[in-house]
Design a protein that fits this description.
The protein is an all-alpha fold and 239 residues long. 78% of the residues lie in helices and 0% in strands. The protein has ten helices and no strands. Helix 1 (4-22) runs parallel beside helix 7. It is globular.
Length: 239
């Protein structure tokens, strides 16, 4: 079952959120310190991913063009609007951050990154769910901590995670028919680096250092795929 890893990921996010809701008596000072710890850890993770690029110019161009596209499409605003709509449907989150903030922050943390794509590809191509199982454990624990600070809105991030990873896994069942393995390997490397910069930005947001509209950078992933594909076929043609 190629969706098994995806479904486990979504389930553990829900479980982590519910456990976080039960642990709502954690002292406020401890929550703030834990959130800083998560933010710093996310920044280091993003930095490690960003340094994996084999051609950092691709990452820069992808982020710049992606930022222009994201600002034009107002992706961050649309994600926030969706979160506010959810908030109206289920009610306020009892003072622990807005449902919109919890939904958007958790969605960006869980969706952006190499593990989501690589894990979903492994599930679809080889039926191997180990990467997504590992990601599920990390996401479940992160959801628990985020919920104690940002509230129940975190639980709704399970929906885009399942749709995103499930879509990739479904696509991956056919991907090897028309995408060369060498091209896929190059894309994963540069996508990891581009996504890593976005994750670093999420860490900055979590620590309160700045407020970056990370969702507006998401088109950079698509731009990365386009640039890598053009360069791959150009070199193939030249040779």
């Amino acid at each position: 079952m190629f969706l098994l890893g995806t479904l486990v990921n979504g389930l553990l996010i829900v479980v982590g959120t519910l456990l976080g809701k039960l642990l709502n008596r954690i002292p406020e000072g401890m929550k703030v310190t834990v959130m800083y710890a998560i933010g710093l850890s996310v920044m280091v993770l993003g930095l490690q991913m960003g340094l994996k690029s084999e051609n950092f110019l691709i990452v820069i161009i992808s982020l710049v063009v992606g930022a222009v596209a994201g600002e034009a499409l107002k992706l961050e605003d649309k994600l926030n609007d969706l979160g506010l709509w959810l908030e109206k449907k289920v009610g306020p989150s009892n003072g622990k951050g807005s449902i919109s903030e919890g939904f958007v922050t958790a969605t960006l943390i869980f969706v952006i990154g190499a593990m989501a794509i690589i894990g979903a590809l492994d599930s679809g191509i080889r039926g191997d769910h180990d990467v997504l199982y590992t990601k599920s454990l990390i996401d479940g624990f992160t959801a628990l901590i985020l919920t104690t600070t940002l509230g129940i809105g975190v639980i709704f991030s399970a929906i885009p995670v399942v749709l995103y990873e499930g879509g990739i896994a479904l696509f991956a069942t056919q991907i090897d028919r028309f995408v060369p393995q060498a091209l896929m390997d190059q894309f994963i490397v540069e996508m990891t680096a581009t996504g890593g910069i976005m994750i670093f930005a999420i860490g900055l947001n979590l620590t309160g250092i700045v407020k970056i509209k990370v969702a507006n950078l998401l088109p950079g992933i698509v731009i990365t795929g386009l640039i890598v594909s053009v360069l791959y076929y150009y070199h193939l043609y030249v040779q």
